[in-house]
Amino acid sequence: MTAALHPRRLPLYGLLLAGVSLLLALLIGSAEIPAGDVLAYLVTDDGSVNDRIVDQLRLPRALSAFAVGGLLALAGTLMQVLLRNPLGDPYVLGVSGGAATAVLLAMLLTLPGAWYTPAALGGALLSTLLVFGMARHGDDWHGDRLLLTGVVVAAGWGALISFVLSISPAVQLPGMLFWLMGDLADATRPGVPLLVLATGLLLARLRARELNIASQGLLQAAALGVDTRRLRLELYFLGAVFTAAAVAVAGSVGFVGLITPHLIRRLGGADHRILLPTAALAGGSLLVLADSAARTLISPMQLPVGVLTALFGVPVFLILLHRRTER
User: Fold this and answer.
1) Which member of 88, 137, 184, 223 lies 3.0 to 4.6 Å from 79 by CB, making a disulfide possible if both were Cys?
2) Is residue 315 helix, strand or coil?
3) Which residues pair with 294 in a beta bridge?
4) CB burial string 168-183: b at 16+ within 10 A, e below
């Protein structure tokens, strides 16, 4: 490996990528604003239209996209440790589906927006319990069984989502469909998801040593003195919280948690002390770039960001599955 790709430098590259992606998100849009003016609007307020576009529209949306992408990448990293399988992802395992179903039910009941996050957390926790409860065999889980169970549970949530949409009033249906495909148009309050991301990253980072050991297998980790029962519960809970926070903000965005950890590992960041922060930065940057593209590809119309992540993520998933099958 060349010095330029030394694993210890990966978080630095992640910070650089995050900065570039956020700057591009502030520059790209239907209104052309020079880069110098964009930077000036971030520190001053002159009341102009361009200033409001940057401060009230582009910046909150970019920060929300970064938080959502980082949360999904962290959730995928933790689930891949549990499965010992690079195909682990909140979307693939049905955790995102459970959270999305709960939020859609809240929308159907016309509950206030404050209910969406608790509903998403309840749905994510329920889906996690279903997947890992049904896949349990004895005192351990087999990665392939977990993956298959997750795919089946995800299909079940998909059927329930279709039922909810079929009985929803026509006036609500367009907004529900667009949100379901991954939508950041109304993500104007990035403070809470950013706080969840920072806190969750710190908590996960404190378990980096146990995660490194558990990556070799939970039975081996138990033999080396790791409290695997506690570690499992922590990973279940953190994965569900990360997914719920992301779904409550942006709807069901797939494959960010699948692609990002795998990419960082390919670059040499297998150590979770490096993998966790780099995955959060790269996942956030990936979704910021995808959302910027979704806003501008067919401007003035906007694409759901989940469409773009799926178009990119599905081929990656199939490649990983093919390689794993060959082994």
Assistant:
1) 88
2) helix
3) none
4) beeeeeeebebbbbbb
Mean pLDDT in consecutive groups of 10 residues from the start of the chain, 327 residues: 66 94 89 82 82 89 95 92 79 88 92 88 89 66 72 91 92 87 85 94 92 82 81 86 91 86 86 94 94 86 85 78 63
Contact (Cβ atoms closer than 8 angstroms) between residue 190 and residue 114: no
Q: Determine the residue type at 285.
A: S
The one-letter amino acid at 275: L
Give 90's contacts (C-beta < 8 A, 6+ positions apart): 72, 75, 76, 79, 96, 124, 239, 242, 243, 246, 257
pLDDT score recorded for residue 179: 85
Pick the CATH number of 3-326 from 3.40.50.740, 1.10.3470.10, 3.40.50.1980, 3.40.50.720: 1.10.3470.10
Separation in Å, CA 304 to CA 71, 184, 242, 298: 18, 8, 21, 11
Burial of residue 288, with CB atoms counted within 10 A of its CB: 0-12 exposed, 13-18 middle, 19 or more buried = buried
DSSP code at position 7: G
- Where in the chain are the domains? 3-326
* pLDDT tens figures, 193-241: 999 999 999 999 999 999 998 888 777 777 888 888 888 888 888 988 9
Q: Confirm whether pTM is higher than 0.70.
A: yes
pLDDT at 327 (0 to 100):
58
How many other CB atoms sit within 10 Å of the CB of residue 148? 13
Which positions ≥6 away from 30 have C-beta within 8 Å? 296, 299, 300
Which of 326, 173, 320 has the alpha carbon at shortest distance from 259? 320
pLDDT at 230: 86
Return the DSSP state at 58.
Answer: I
pLDDT, residue 3, reads: 43
